[in-house]
Every structure is written in C-alpha cells, then in structure tokens.
Amino acid sequence: MSHNPLLLPADLPVPQDDGAADHLPGLRMPALALPATDGAEMRVDVVPPGATRLVLYAYPRTGRPGVEPPPGWDLIPGARGCTPQSCAFRDHAAELGSAGAAVAGLSTQDTGYQREAVQRLHLPFPLLSDVHLALTRALRLPTFEVAGVTLLRRLTLVVRDGVVEHVFYPVFPPDRHARVVLDWLAGHPVR
Fold this sequence. Notes:
The chain is of the alpha/beta class and about 190 residues long. It has helices at about 80-90, 95-100, 110-120, 135-140, 175-185; strands at about 35, 40-45, 55-60, 100-105, 125-130, 145, 150, 155-160, 165-170.
C-alpha cells in the first residue's frame, strides 16, 4: 500500500511537553522576512493588513502521496500529521479570518517543496520556509533531526503587535488543532 499523508494512524505516539517552548510567550518576534509560497517574503513580526493576529503554525514536514516518509517517522512523537494539520487550517481559514487571525505555516522545507503542497492541498494561506533556520535559531524553537535534516517540532505561535501572545505546544492531535486555536481566539478577543 502506498503512503497517504492525509491519513493518521490510530496508534501515533503522543508528544509530551518537554518545556522546549516555555521561553516563547512574551518574546518579541525578530524582524525577519521568510520566503513564502506566494512568491513574496513575509515578515514574522508584522501582522498582515486586515488582521489583528498572526497564527504561525510550525510543522516538521508535509508528505506527498505515494512517497514514503523517513524510516520510523510514525514512531517519532508529534512527527506525523503535517498534511492533516494544514488541511484543518485550510478548512477553518474563513473562521480564523473572521476571528481576526491571518494564518501562515512554517517549516524548514524549501519553498519549492512547500509550493507543491499549497497547490495540491488548496491552501488559502502561505507556507513560510525557514530552510536556513534563521527564525528557528532566533527564537530557539524546538527541533529534532531526521536523516541529517533539522525539522521543527509541531507548535503554534499567536503573534500580536510583534510579540508572541500565546504558544500551543505540544500539538496533538494535529488534525484537530485548528479548531483548538479558533476556540482560544474566541475566548481571547482583541479589545
């Protein structure tokens, strides 16, 4: 059977909070612009026009149908589920926008790889590439390595006025996370 990145196995290991994101709430976002899948560069410290917050969800790597993930991928807590997570943010994009949030995904994959995912999954928001780990290092984001490649652990930053207002970490299950973010936004309106 060929790999289907849209499906989540029932027995995925649950990631535990290792404290690797405890330092993030209240941090000022660095004035960095990352390459985006829409061909532009996007500042991570600036909320896009028309929004009051930026929801920046970080994920390890999206998969492609028929292409097997790295060996042992499903055994790494929090690794599997990037495609379902992105699809959930896609499916809730209008609601998130109505709640004042602009959405962007973030991974260490290159923009070309990410662009294919945006097109195939019909994502209405950009994916940002931190292939050179500039934001990852500046914020000391939690990472792990697979096959010599540094990947982000799944987390979501809510950015407001250039500051990390809230952090979701660890994120599980990934396919339900967009709803969790939406509920948090509803309970924390901008005054």
